[in-house]
Design brief:
Blueprint (H helix, E strand, L loop, with lengths): L27 E8 L9 H19 L2 H6 E8 L3 E9 L16 H22 L7 E6 L8 H12 L4 E6 L5 H4 L8 E4 L4 H16 L16 E3 L4
Parallel strand pairs: 1-2, 1-4, 4-5, 5-6
Antiparallel strand pairs: 2-3, 6-7
């Protein structure tokens, strides 16, 4: 059935992925899928998203020791009318902070596919290096809904989650389509964000990744207290 649907745990594009640092220590990988469509210009959401990324790196580096900084691997994908791999997986200490610009539509389906390819490739790298790792995260931030073909990619994502290959979260700001997001992400993993408060959101993600790396849990669940601006979306 899996092969009939076109899913393959060994599939993935050829990305330039660095050698694993501290390969014997347990790693956690997180890919950010960031909506940079033209609607993100409203209320300076794109500017606040840029600031949130800067805060994420600053807080993560300030709160972690030398080994931990090298064991949280981050990738960044942006999507509007096109999908761009801004950064393949690399330790958060080596993370380049882009200056994102808003334009175009919302090719979220293709971004999901690229994110899953990245995760699959990174897990293969960990396995080849003998590196233990937590279940990777896929973290999508959007103010809308996909306007490309996303159904097959959503099925692939659900397969990866059901088979404990990844954990996916969605955070939506004003205007995002929670009803459509519930057909892509597990409803309990969908959050809303008030006032485009990306600074608080990325502080929360930083703390969550730190807590995960220092835990014995395998679920990859968010166990850090959420900020006041972040809330669970009611289920339909």
């Amino acid at each position: 059935m899996l092969q009939q649907m076109g899913f393959n745990e060994n599939q993935g594009n050829e990305f330039d992925i660095p050698v694993v640092k501290y390969a014997t220590e347990k790693h956690v990988a997180c890919v950010f899928l960031l909506d940079t469509s033209s609607s993100m210009e409203q209320n300076n959401a794109i500017g606040q998203l840029n600031e949130g990324l800067r805060v994420f790196k600053k807080q993560t580096l300030a709160s972690l020791d030398k080994h931990a900084k090298a064991c949280i691997d981050v990738a960044v994908i942006t999507f509007n009318s096109t999908i761009d791999l801004v950064q393949g997986f690399r330790p958060v200490e080596d993370m380049d902070i882009p200056e994102l610009k808003a334009s175009g539509l919302t090719a979220m389906g293709g971004a999901l596919d690229m994110g899953m390819d990245l995760i699959t490739k990174q897990k293969k790298l960990y396995n080849e290096a003998g590196t233990p790792y937590f279940r990777p995260w896929l973290f999508c931030i959007t103010d809308g809904a996909p306007n490309d073909d996303y159904i097959l990619h959503a099925k692939r994502l659900r397969w990866m989650e059901d088979n404990k290959k990844a954990v996916a979260y969605c955070v939506g700001v004003d205007g995002f389509r929670a009803d459509i997001m519930q057909t892509i992400f597990k409803p309990e993993n969908i959050y809303g964000l008030k006032n485009c408060d990306f600074t608080s959101l990325f502080k929360f993600v930083s703390s969550s990744l730190d807590a995960l790396r220092n835990s014995t849990a395998e679920t990859g669940a968010l166990n850090v207290e959420t900020p006041e601006s972040m809330f669970r979306v009611p289920l339909d």
